[in-house]
Amino acid sequence: MSTLAKLGSALLFSLCAAGAYGQPAQPTLTVMAGPIANRITAAELLSRPDLASIQIPPGVDYDVQLTVQAVPLLDLLVALSLEGYDRLEATATDGFVAQIPLALIEAGKNGGSVAWVAVEDPAHPWPKMREKDASAGPFYLVWQYPERSRVANEQWPYMLEKLTAVQSPELRWPQLKVNETLPADAPAKLGETVFATQCLPCHRLNGGGGSGIGPDLGRPMATRLGARSEIGKNLATAANAGVFPEDTAGRRARSLDRLPEADRKPARPMKIR
């Protein structure tokens, strides 16, 4: 090869490399079970034949109706072997880690709530979330008909980066499990379910859990005197009224023993992140 030809080849290679490195990295969603991990880019999801346009009513993370391009979550899981798993751990880029029962997802086949993975198109970005300086993208787990299966707000993880098939939290972290001899309708049993759904996405308990956004709720932490005083006042008020705090937004619910049987299910408090 002549010197001129070599120089031309080198120049062409340099231009191609510069073009490749100049392109922004594609957002990638990892979907995995055991040793199998499928990494799918936003562009690949947006080109799938099962992509659909769905509308999300205002309420969870947005105050306005949102129209998104989304892929059925069940379709993304079909290539994986889910035997031995009963949860889908949804990990977000900000450290939020939701524990979603696979039974809840599969209920969409039989008239239950239908789970989708919404994909933000870089050419048509979503608006910013309520009181946030960012959108819910690049990936957002959303639900159609959430009322059918009583989907909790914490089961709408945004800024999603990974979906992992796992075992139940109480199997992975035995310290989360209540006494097995308790009757099925014991308040502590309900508390275990509520904690896994609504608290575990941000907190741990005695080291058990996958998120580190908030403090470990089973271990002492330093606090200012003023804050301690305020906590004590709130707890005293709750005890006297027979109620308990439902969330950090200040709303309260009646104590469990005063709830009708039909209402003894996890509530849907505001998701704080």
Kindly list the characteristics that best describe this protein.
five-stranded mixed beta sheet, 22% strand, 273 residues, alpha+beta
Structure notes:
The chain is α+β, with helices and mostly antiparallel strands. The protein is built from seven helices and eleven strands. The longest helix has 20 residues, at 3-22. It is globular, with a radius of gyration of 23 Å. Residues 17-21 and 234-270 have low confidence and may be disordered.
Question: Which helices and strands, and how do they pair?
Answer:
Blueprint: H1 3-22, E1 28-33, E2 36-41, H2 42-46, E3 52-56, E4 66-72, H3 73-77, E5 87-92, E6 97-101, H4 102-106, E7 114-119, E8 139-144, E9 160-166, H5 169-172, H6 187-199, H7 225-241, E10 243-245, E11 252-254
Parallel strand pairs: 1-9
Antiparallel strand pairs: 1-2, 3-4, 4-7, 5-6, 5-9, 7-8, 10-11
